[in-house]
Design brief:
- The chain has helices spanning about 15, 20-35, 40-45, 50-65.
- With about 70 residues, it is an all-alpha fold.
- It has a domain at about 20-65.
- It is globular and about 35 Å long.
- The protein starts with 13 loop residues before the first helix and ends with a helix.
């Protein structure tokens, strides 16, 4: 999962992120979205990604990635 376009600092270079487990990518993305102090204009765009992240988290839990 690529960082959000407004992320000033990616978590790691793309080559390193490729080896992260999917549940870790989703968990970090959700934590980042919830804890970053977004500007009101940016928040409108970021808020649109939250349903997809929650759906992806639920899909991964059902597939057993969180066990």
């Amino acid at each position: 999962m690529d960082p959000l376009p407004h992320a000033p600092y990616p978590l790691a270079p793309h080559s390193q992120r490729a080896c992260y487990l999917p549940w870790l990518k989703v968990s970090v993305a959700l934590r980042y979205v919830r804890s970053f102090p977004w500007a009101p204009e940016a928040w409108r765009e970021v808020r649109q990604h939250i349903p997809w992240l929650l759906a992806e988290q639920a899909r991964l839990r059902k597939s057993g990635w969180f066990n």
